[in-house]
Design a protein that fits this description.
It is globular and about 50 Å long. It has one domain: Rossmann fold. A six-stranded mixed beta sheet has the order 5-4-3-6-7-8, with helices on both faces. The protein has a three-stranded antiparallel beta sheet with strand order 1-2-9. It starts with a helix and ends in a 23-residue tail after the last strand. It is of the alpha/beta class. The longest helix has 13 residues. The chain is built from five helices and nine strands, in the order αββααβαβββαβββ.
């Protein structure tokens, strides 16, 4: 699928929101990609994530890992396409960690995936977790890259859609008149 076709999917599923939003990074935005509205449709999730998996099929991936919550379905579907296990990392006392008996072995080749990347902070934390256990992060993939390709994750990186969507400081004058900010994501600002 082309970027235009993927963007149309977001529009048809009401997953592209306009207004005043607080992002996971704490920055604010006039647009928000609610990937859960797309991923709730199994046929769309499978199609999008198979396309993402195709970018890494030649990398001998041992497992796919995502930050919770937004990346869980993405990891599952990418892993299904690659025929490898899917894991997710969760925040525990402010840091990404493996829970639920999940384990990454030293030397394993790990693909990190996410639904949306703005600054890449969560993905970088998960990549650091992979390195801490002695595994090899072979790449990162996402459905939507809001940075227009400027997010530097330190590994091979691929996005299905890459758009330059401005993220603002909370007090930016560009946000005046938009009304109160809402946080539709899964993570509160104090986690």
């Amino acid at each position: 699928m082309t970027e235009h076709e993927i963007l149309q999917i977001f529009e048809k599923t009401n997953a592209l929101l306009n207004g005043h939003f607080i992002l996971t990074s704490g920055l604010h935005s006039k647009q928000y990609f609610q990937c859960a509205q797309v991923m709730k449709h199994p046929e769309l999730a499978e199609k999008l994530c198979a396309q993402m998996a195709a970018e890494f099929v030649d990398q001998n991936v041992d497992l796919v890992l995502a930050p919770a919550v937004g990346g869980i379905v993405v990891a599952h579907e990418v892993a299904r396409a690659l025929k490898v296990p899917a894991l997710f990392a969760e925040r525990e006392q402010g840091q990404m960690s493996l829970r639920r008996g999940f384990e990454i072995l030293p030397g394993q080749r790990v693909l990190v995936v996410e639904d949306v990347v703005t600054t890449g902070g969560s993905v970088k934390e998960v990549i650091s977790l992979v390195r801490e256990v002695g595994a090899e992060p072979i790449g990162a993939g996402c459905i939507v890259d809001r940075s227009g390709g400027t997010a530097d994750l330190g590994v091979r990186y691929s996005a299905l859609i890459s758009l330059q969507i401005t993220a603002y400081q909370p007090d930016a004058p560009e946000l005046s008149g938009l009304g109160p900010a809402i946080k539709p994501g899964s993570r509160s600002l104090n986690q």
